[in-house]
Amino acid sequence: MKTRKIGKLEVSAVGYGCMGLSHGYGNTTEKSDALRIIHQAYDLGCTFFDTAEVYGKGHNEEVVGEGLQGFRDNIVLASKFNIPKNDSYTPNSLLKEIRSHLEASLKRLRTDRIELYYQHRVIKGIPVEDVAWCMGELIKEGKILGWGQSQSTEQEIRRAHAVTPLSAVQSEYSLMERMFETDVIPACQELGIGFVPFSPLASGFLSGKGQTGNSYSGDDVRRVITRFDEENVAANQPLLDLLNNIAQQKQVTPAQISLAWMLKKKDFIVPIPGGRTLERMQENFGAADIDFSDEEFIAFEFALSGIQIHGNRTDEDVAKLKSLEVANT
Ligand SMILES: NC(=O)c1ccc[n+]([C@@H]2O[C@H](COP(=O)([O-])OP(=O)(O)OC[C@H]3O[C@@H](n4cnc5c(N)ncnc54)[C@H](OP(=O)(O)O)[C@@H]3O)[C@@H](O)[C@H]2O)c1
User: Which of 328, 245, 253 is nearest to 287 (CA)?
Assistant: First the structure.
């Protein structure tokens, strides 16, 4: 697969989001299948794997750590930490807290370093400068090679970057969620920071193979994020029609057009779609080979500008899943 640079890290143009193997899409993948899928992703040319301590409460890091054995040194591994809100952190106690999360992740991941370590969410009351200082200390120790933020604002990125330069910002970005285009993506461009879109297929919606939210079960986010509400699925049909038309013209698929669009947009954008079958991974990674001419791209953007998007995915909605799951048990 073609490669791209995010900060100083070289990665495949499309990475693999491992979350769905443990969390967020209804069922946990059998371990033997998950290990096979990780190997297949690597065999297809993927050299960028994304996980987090919170996915399946450590399960995802464990399975990813095991799956990567054998080619660990050939790939860029990204993980994320969440620290509890606490108004009395000093820089040193914050470092101690983050270090304890990192050590636990390294153990689960069966490795001695993480190439890209993200703060999963910026927390109000914990200065981004203090977190950035901690990350600088961990970089000096060689335990992480670079760091990033997720869903952060332009100002949070600038303030953190001034203390310890960020390698990447990972935030939601797709044809259905473009809120970071106005400020965050231009700031990343200016500062030389990679931008890693999560949910680049809008949780599968953009593949055109999705269903309405009420057809999903378990810990599937599509039960609670509003773009999968019945009326929004119907209202978003014009976007799928446009994608289908262009996909047919170019003899590719709507998912591939969705990923090729963001790859064309900026050369420091590296999406990390999920997908748990060989066919889906072939489809998603294949987007790296699709050429969007400048004329096609401009015409596509123009057509998009006439389409309204209905529903989205917010942290508040995702949090509702917990009460639904409890109600089901
Ligand atoms: N930083 C954050 O806060 C944050 C939040 C969410 C996710 N993430 C990261 O971003 C990664 C990607 O997010 P995501 O999993 O929501 O991305 P996504 O690829 O937009 O959505 C995954 C969903 O789409 C389906 N899918 C993927 N490719 C498909 C294809 N070609 N055809 C049909 N369906 C397809 C998957 O199905 P199956 O899995 O059933 O095959 C799954 O249901 C995660 O794995 C995680 O590492 C980060």
Answer: 253
Query: What ranges do the domains of the chain cover?
Result: 3-328
What is the model's pTM? 0.97
If one residue of 11, 16, 18, 19 were mutated to test the ligand 1 pocket, choosing by the most ligand atoms within 8 A of its CB, it would be 19
Q: Which of 16, 25, 42, 55 is catalytic?
A: 55
pLDDT-derived band at 109 (thresholds 50, 70, 90) equals very high
Rounded distance, CA 49 to CA 277, Å?
Answer: 16
Ligand 1 centroid distance, CA of 94 (Å): 31
Under the banding of pLDDT at 50, 70 and 90, the label for residue 324 is confident
* Ligand 1 atom index nearest CA of 253: 31
292 SS3 class: coil
Query: Which is it for strands 48-50 and 9-12: parallel, antiparallel or unpaired?
Result: unpaired
CATH topology of domain 3-328: TIM Barrel (3.20.20)
Give the model confidence (pLDDT) of 86-105 as tens digits.
Answer: 889 999 999 999 999 999 99
Query: Catalytic site residue 117?
Result: no
Which segments of the chain are extended strands (E)?
A: 3-6, 9-12, 16-17, 48-50, 76-81, 114-119, 144-150, 168-172, 194-198
Q: Please give the Cα distance from 14 to 29 (Å, whole number).
A: 22
**Cβ(19) – ligand 1 distance below 6 Å:** yes
Q: Which of 220, 223, 216, 218 is nearest to 326 (CA)?
A: 218
Q: What one-character DSSP code corresponds to residue 81? A: E
